[in-house]
Write a structure and sequence with these properties.
The protein is α/β, with parallel strands linked by helices and 289 residues long. Helix content is 37%, strand content 12%. It has one domain: Alpha-Beta Barrel (TIM Barrel). The protein has an 8-stranded parallel β-sheet with strand order 1-2-3-4-5-6-7-8, with helices on both faces. (1E,3Z)-4-hydroxybuta-1,3-diene-1,2,4-tricarboxylic acid binds next to loops. This is 2-pyrone-4,6-dicarboxylate lactonase.
């Protein structure tokens, strides 16, 4: 593990918010254990092991029923830890993989069988080297045959350049962490409005209203992130999903308490109907439909 890497919270609090039965944690990861599933040689960070057993324990402790496990960059395109976790979870988990242009139909079919339902394209420069857009478009053509979708991770300043590419993608797209806005600017700032307009203009684009712990400047309980999440949940109630982002790779400011993260949910989704859409109906449609 990197010297400055912050391991996940050892004993998160019990959330005050009681999750509805059937709730899905739609963004989380498994890391290692490294002696079974080594980290990728091209990785930009080395995390603390966060094996599937710990994730499933947290799922039950917080009151979630299901997980969507997202391949993280520290495992590169080696999806073995992900597939192993999916097989162990059975119907309680689905996955998002990371693949290269050489992926075969047989390999995709095998991952589909294990519960993978999409791929992630990452544009965050501190996490990955650049991949040419043509490569991503080639992968998109292959995975669309399986009815999969594409998760994209980028930061707000890159949205303008990326928009023409996003419009070319032939599947449902899910944008990680609200497109990572700068929350000091306000929801009315043109940068966040560009993101809102992207969803407004493209009905195939969804977003995860996740990661107040990454976006915050004020720190817990993340008051400064509430207006962003709430704006998206209320405007696009059938295209938002939520996840813990456990085990929170690359946090520098603090170690998030997963119980407190769950307590963030009713602040951005204040009614039972919005909570049901965010936590159950939307992720179930996208991953279990
Ligand atoms: C996240 C965020 C981060 C890392 C990764 O794949 C990854 O390594 O996604 C990050 O450092 O912002 O969603 O887990």
């Amino acid at each position: 593990m990197d010297k400055d890497y912050l391991p996940f919270h050892p004993n998160p609090s019990k959330p005050a918010f009681k999750l509805p039965a059937g709730a899905v944690d739609a963004h989380c990861h498994v890391f290692g254990p490294a002696d079974v599933f080594p980290y990728a040689p091209e990785r930009k960070y080395t995390p603390c092991d966060a094996p599937k057993e710990k994730l499933f324990e947290l799922r039950d402790y917080l009151g979630f029923d299901r997980n969507v496990i997202v391949q993280a960059t520290c495992h590169g395109k080696d999806n073995r830890a992900l597939v192993d976790a999916l097989k162990a979870a059975g119907d309680k988990a689905r996955g998002i993989a990371s693949v290269g242009p050489d992926i075969t139909e047989a390999e995709l079919a095998e991952m589909d069988q294990a519960g993978v339902r999409g791929v992630r394209f990452n544009f965050v420069k501190r996490l990955v080297d650049n991949t040419p857009k043509d490569v991503f478009l080639g992968i998109a053509e292959k995975i669309k045959e399986f009815g999969w979708h594409i998760v994209v991770y980028f930061e707000a300043p890159d949205l303008e350049d990326l928009t023409p590419f996003l419009k070319q993608l032939p599947t449902t797209i899910v944008v990680d962490h609200m497109g990572r806005p700068d929350v000091t600017k306000g929801v009315d700032h043109p940068d966040f409005q560009r993101f809102v307009n992207l969803l407004q203009d493209n009905e195939n684009i969804w977003t995860k209203v996740t990661c107040p712990e990454r976006l915050t400047v004020a720190g817990p309980p993340y008051d400064d992130v509430v207006p962003y999440g709430k704006a998206l949940v209320e405007r696009f109630p059938d295209r938002v999903i939520w996840g813990t982002d456990w085990p929170h790779p690359n946090m520098k400011s603090h170690v998030p308490d997963d119980g407190k993260l769950v307590d963030f949910i009713p602040r951005i989704a204040p009614t039972e109907a919005l909570q049901k859409a965010l936590l159950i109906d939307n992720p179930m449609r996208l991953y279990w439909g």
